[in-house]
Amino acid sequence: ERQPCMPTHPQRPLVLKTLIQFTVKLRLLIKLPELNYQIKVKATIDKNVSTVSNRRFILCGTHVKAMNMEESSNGSLSVEFRHLQPKEMKSSAGGKGNEGPHMVTEELHSISFETQICLYGLTIDLETNSLPVVMISNVSQLPNAWASIIWYNLSTNDSQNLVFFNNPPTAALNQLLEVLSWQFSSYVGRGLNSDQLNMLAEKLTVQQTSCNDGQLSWAKFCKEHLPGKAFTFWVWLEAILDLIKKHILPLWIDGYIMGFVSKEKERVLLKDKMPGTFLLRFSESNLGGITFTWVDQSENGEVRFHSIEPYNKGRLAALPFADILRDYKVIMAENVPENPLKYLYPDIPKDKAFGKHYSSQPNEVSRPTERGDKGYVPSVFIPISTIRSDSTEPRSPSDLLPMSPSVYAVLREHLSPTVIETAMSSPCSAD
Amino acid sequence: ERQPCMPTHPQRPLVLKTLIQFTVKLRLLIKLPELNYQIKVKATIDKNVSTVSNRRFILCGTHVKAMNMEESSNGSLSVEFRHLQPKEMKSSAGGKGNEGPHMVTEELHSISFETQICLYGLTIDLETNSLPVVMISNVSQLPNAWASIIWYNLSTNDSQNLVFFNNPPTAALNQLLEVLSWQFSSYVGRGLNSDQLNMLAEKLTVQQTSCNDGQLSWAKFCKEHLPGKAFTFWVWLEAILDLIKKHILPLWIDGYIMGFVSKEKERVLLKDKMPGTFLLRFSESNLGGITFTWVDQSENGEVRFHSIEPYNKGRLAALPFADILRDYKVIMAENVPENPLKYLYPDIPKDKAFGKHYSSQPNEVSRPTERGDKGYVPSVFIPISTIRSDSTEPRSPSDLLPMSPSVYAVLREHLSPTVIETAMSSPCSAD
DNA sequence: ACAGTTTCCCGTAAATGC
DNA sequence: TGCATTTACGGGAAACTG
């Protein structure tokens, strides 16, 4: 008769975190003619202790509340519990309940709502339960918990099978893909097209030892590591969702991120394109990483591909991805302009003072293996002050005023042919 | 008879945060011959309610504990309360106690310890109190709270004057400076020299309308904003302590950061030095910012100074400061190598796809005013792949193998006039 | 309206448990 | 011992409250 739902982490309902409050709204689906008294509803967690767990929780906050009229619409009764927060009761009695699955994120719990309605002298006991919920204690568990919710609701219409993960069923691959696309559209505002879904499908079904029947096991989705990797498919995908949401949301929504392309497909796509054509792809080896791959031609006309070392959250926090695309450069050491900093006051050679603090980060000089571990082009951030000097039309000193004289002086000193200090080389011919 | 002390935030004792646990250790300074029974000590906060506040706190956790033998040394009795956590009791009765200071960080509280000792048939009540403590609810209040602790202990020997901040006394400037230096040495491992202290003294005493008597008011230290700034002296200094601790600790400890120098002094120091001589200075206008200033000469021999836009925590998290010093470059727009990314697959001009997402960050082209708001040289991070190409000794193609052919191709395409001689293997002629 | 203050809660690190 | 899980708490931001 009622319709429970419970957001906690926005867009990740049915996952509850201990000590973090959540909200549940309940609507009475039958209409009552008499409303002379309060209908009080009580919320309980795991009321019937038949849970697959020896963890016990209670709900703190006002878990008994009266229903009131819905302001909007049809005047039906509802009640919203706010600020409920689950707390774990340390069960000193180590009576291991049902053994079941070992991960807490595969442990299903249930929230019950009870009430009594006295109607025409009749006393009616009402009770309803939420869909299974997963209880976690730290956001780090959220990805796996959410996977459980997805898998459950994808696989069964059962509203209360708390032992579901004792023996989780397989899911139809095409249904799963639909859910994944829906995940993207609800979480980051744009779903996945068929090319992207095909790539994910391939990734999910490699090493599918048997059953090529379009079914996928829970283990393949969320338990077993991807071949050669130290993480599961789902963790990999969640890291990408997170990356998109936090760092490249508008680009994603605009559809400029192809994202899910295999390295092989990538080459097929790029090989006939103009040199300088590139695409954006999520890293398959780094969690939450994005790279760009571009094509060019070597002097003998051979087509070549280059992928930048993937950018992750940390780097993108320092420099937005669009800016990286705008400003990315490949330069030769000889053409790097001189560093204007030479002596720490009063006269300590810079490297003498700071040399031991330089990070091993491969700036300036490329790594021993020119391409990184995965064939990526190494890339670093360099602090630069860039000056525009428009040489197409000669200018008088006064015309240069928009550029401050002192900066101009820096340029003169370090970049002009008549350099005083040890110049590395003459500047490469511009253009 | 006892000796209380209480670390919570390491190195910021006497500041307690609600709901965050702390530890207190108590030692009995008299020796007892008989120890046949347990001496239980009770910890209370603001036991005598004569506090300058209507905030009420209680201590949660085991606040009654028995003393035991000290394992080390002389077998004296002690007790350590761990996991105590202060909680605020919302006093619904709005009976504003003592009016006093308005800031909670100027509200002094006190922790009391009580016990009873039965010795030779005599019952002795013992009680001792902590030095005044400040209760905060968020780390954002810690700097001001710690300032209160410093000022109190600098100004008085009174062990319990909880109304101290109703009318805080002035402090002797030289004593304060000593404390500041001690702050640096205890918090970031290196104190301040006299030059640095002189700069701070000047900063503290500008606009010192009257009393040039070497006394400084609490307000000047921690209440009034610095002239023309939106923060107090202390907040400015704390931001620097924080910056040092988190991003440039080893450089600070080595003494390579002059840090506290006025812009005027800076020029005096640098003007006779070799071009390329620089020093590191904390920004006076940006909270927690550090800049470097270098000297060079314009072509007509005029001495010029340049200061980089200060780096703050966010930027230093992306690029360590030592690396910034190592890699900083000033380049001209004309000499910037081409960006290899031109068309988003299949053939969308890059700027068409991403142009609207570029940040307004002034990369590539300098700002309208060539030097920023405060006369700083603007500076940005640029993602770069750098390739060493050693032209001093020609190499055969096979020597080029350590560099991947594709990277080589990039170089060919975008950078080289005609010929590239590349080698990874040759060590760069060290220094 | 607003500023001081507290609460909320993510996310990393450390502690704990098994 | 190692991994699974919880706890701790800094820090940014929202909510609260006079």
From TrEMBL, chains A, B:
Domain SH2: 252-330
CC terms in the record's Gene Ontology section: cytoplasm; nucleus
Keyword Hydrolase: no
Keyword Metal-binding belongs to the record: no
Coiled-coil residues: none
Keywords per UniProt: Activator, Cytoplasm, DNA-binding, Nucleus, Phosphoprotein, SH2 domain, Transcription, Transcription regulation
GO MF, one annotated term: DNA-binding transcription factor activity
Top-level taxon: Eukaryota
Any Gene Ontology biological process: immune response
Locations listed in the record: Cytoplasm; Nucleus
Family affiliation: Belongs to the transcription factor STAT family.
Record-given protein name: Signal transducer and activator of transcription
Organism of provenance: Phascolarctos cinereus
Lineage: Eukaryota, Metazoa, Chordata, Craniata, Vertebrata
First-to-last residue of the parent protein present: 221 to 651 of 651
